[in-house]
Amino acid sequence: MAVLNIEKSFLTENRSVLDFLNQSGQGLYIPLYQRDYSWDTDNIEQLLEDLSRGIQRIAIGEVTDDSKEIRFLGTIITVVESNRNNIYPVEIQAVPPRIEKLIDGQQRVSTIALMATLLVKRLTEIKSKVKPTNEIYDQVIEICDTWIDQKLCKVFSFDLGRGKPSLKPKIVRGAKDYWTRENSENDAYKSELANYLGHFIKAYCDKTSFPCLTKEGSKNSLLYQNGRRIESWLKKTVAVAHEGNTDDFASAENILNKFSQDQLWDYDRPELVAIVRQSDYNNKKGNSYILSELVQTLAVCHYLLDRCCFTIIQPTDDDWAFDMFQSLNATGTPLTAIETFKPTVVNTIDNLPNKQFKDSISDIYFKKLEAFLSEATTAQQKNKRTNDYLTSFFVAYDGRTMSTHFSYQRKVLNEVYSTFDSLEQKESFVKRMGNYAEFYREWLSYDGKNNAKFHLVGDANESDLASMLILFLKSSKHKMAITVLGSMYNLIQEDNPENGVELFIESVKVIAAYYFIWRSAYPNAGLDTTYRDFFKNNTFSINNLKSYIRSILAKKEIENKDGWKTLAKNYLKYDSTGNDVIRLAILASAHDTIPDNNHTGSLKLGRHGCAPYLTVEKWMSQGLKTIEHIAPQTNKENLWDTSLYEPTTKIFQSIGNLTLLPQDLNSSAGNKGWREKLLYYQTVAEKDPAKIQSLEDKASELGIQLNSNTVDLLKSSQFSKHLESISCIPYKIDWNRQIIENRTEAMLDIIWERIAKWIFD
Q: What pLDDT was estimated at residue 299?
């Protein structure tokens, strides 16, 4: 009887992404029976979050030993295929020296291969920004080429040593693809990923433009969507982190403070570090800006390839591989840190004399927490919801930054719980978690459909305003608002004050005003930190919150109208701040205002109730969804005052040149001239339906030809009072710089009057 040696039947090892995919001559073959690429948005967002948070943890010194900052990406099961006849279809001369059948892990490996190509593309774009005469040219080229040639390319390709090109896609799919020496990419690679990799490799080898995943070519597939999301993240979050517009990624300066330089660019380069530290970000073509963009991108390369890792399992028998695959995939949804925290709570209470967890306060409130998590339908959604909840909860609890690491979350929950001496304190902590989850659940589910108000405000005074502001905060993705509102909800549930709803509404107004005033004067950078600092150093109450916010606004020199207006004139512009901030500004300036007959095109405060615009109905209205440039963004044929388009001032982007229109009407207005646009605004602002019917006659009088679709759109548009101040301008007066500047001044005065009082009264 043969001796059973289980130890030698499975080769198991832990490897970094680069170490696993950088094996010489390695090709990965996805068998025919494997499902197609299926990673969805949740998977991608989790990966990007893992990369961002991991890099941040090191960059801000959250981890004392950065060698322990690694990210486990799961298990990869492969079987070495020694018989080339088992590969179909096959071109024998092009088969890689080492073929591994990918039994489990193809989704992760495919996504990482895709991401590696996009990192190559980004580094190539950064290289192109540096001219040969630039003092940093040689070093930037050396750094980028090292990462591209020696690392990133080996993630998605292998060198066959023959053929044109000699580099071949790392991953192919059985029955669809085959490795080829010289056949065209479209003939050899039929699956979407392999086809994309084949074309990308050819462009890389031929030094031509890289191919793009196109919506038309891929039919809006998951690979296309994921590629676009990764590329957007690299360009709009990673590349610009040094500008201070986001707290979602570490800046180059912080990265260089904590990361070893050999992890980024092989050896110390003090001259490059000195240029980064100059922080000259006004010139996007300057060396400081380019090197910061490079450092932030290299941090992603390093973390993805060197700190992300797999457990590689290689059974020596195919049958064992499939048994293991079935076993690993039959274990159900992975547990979250919250679920592993529950036994600690249960055991603590059950081990006390005359106490039991069942039906206890902790049981009741843990069920609220579980109800919140149970709404996630997939493992990825459940994991994301847990991470989002714990990140938000612990900011509100003590201002700490919570990692997405399962082990770290579990450790924090148990450590915090263990610090309480009495059962009452422990129950209070669980109760707080449950209340916070209950509020978070309400926050996520609220969508304002059918003009419904937020569940927690009922029909109280200003409930409509508060509901609209919650929609504004949600649409702006200002998640830090949850920390304040969840804390207020918990306070109300704990103390049950008679004015609980009013306190909650006041909290909504304070946070909406704080976010709006900051974001209409400054980028987002540093805003999230102010919330953490508040919860670290203050007992939560509405008075403490307002006092703290006033002090922050004073430090930013926007605690009064004059200081705020000085900055808002230059920053509250279409190309500077978010669309939702612009929309709220326009709605606030339209609320209960009337045309100012003493100033052409301007407006002033009217009687209360004369034009209600700060409502859920107006926020949800399709007729007020799209921001319209009155003088368009492109001055085709010089139809408009050319002074509006001076590059230093960009008056055409100012709040005074913006209004709101339905999407279809906005598209129709497009780059029309002022007289035709004025006719549009007059029609939409007209109260008398009889006058609307004579629209075509009016257009004919003015020498304007309207197509039938435009006529139908204008006649069917809902009356919009906010356009009256524009529509009352006589046709003989052109829309000009003076009108826009006067209108901007008036709108800013009204906006401050409306919104600042929520904090300062």
A: 97
308 and 73 Cβ atoms separated by less than 8 Å: yes
309 backbone dihedrals φ, ψ, rounded to 5°: -145, 160
Q: Which helix (H) or strand (E) holds 310?
A: strand 308-315
φ/ψ region of 359 (left if φ > 0, alpha if ψ in -120 to 50, else beta) reads: left
Give the Cα separation of 678 and 655 in Å (integer).
18
Find where tokens 């190509």 sit. Answer: 117
Q: Do the Cβ atoms of 625 and 660 come closer than 8 Å?
A: yes
Alpha helices in 453-578 (DSSP H): 463-475, 480-495, 500-519, 527-537, 542-555, 561-571
Residue at 688: amino acid letter: D
- Residue 332 Rama label (left phi>0; alpha psi -120 to 50; beta): left
Within 22-88, strands assigned E span 26-30, 71-80
- Residue 544 dihedral angles phi and psi, to the nearest 5°: -65, -40
Q: Cα–Cα distances in Å, from 582 out to 545, 603, 627, 667, 707?
A: 25, 17, 8, 19, 31
Question: What is the identity of the amino acid at 691?
Answer: K
Nearest Cα residue to 743 out of 728, 760, 758:
728
What length does the chain have?
A: 761
- Among 376, 383, 307, which residue's Cα sits nearest to residue 112? 307
According to DSSP, the β-strands at 626-629 and 658-661 are antiparallel
**What amino acid occupies position 112?**
I
Give pTM, 2 decimals. 0.78
Place of tokens 């440039």: 629
Residues 547-560 have pLDDT tens digits of: 999 999 999 999 99
**Residue 146 corresponds to which tokens in the numbers above?**
């090292």
What digits encode the pLDDT tens for the residues 272-325?
Answer: 999 999 988 878 899 999 999 999 999 999 999 999 999 998 887 666 666 666
The CA-atom distances, in angstroms, between 252 and each of 34, 49, 246, 261 are 41, 18, 13, 12
**332: which residues sit within 8 A by CB, 6+ positions away?**
none
Is pLDDT at 1 greater than 50 in this prediction? no
Q: Output helix, strand, coil percentages for the chain, rounded to the nearest 5.
A: 60, 10, 30
> SS3 sequence, 221-260?
CHHHHHHHHHHHHHHHHHCCHHHCCCCCCCCHHHHHHHCC
Asked if omega into 689 is within 30° of 0 (cis), the reply is no
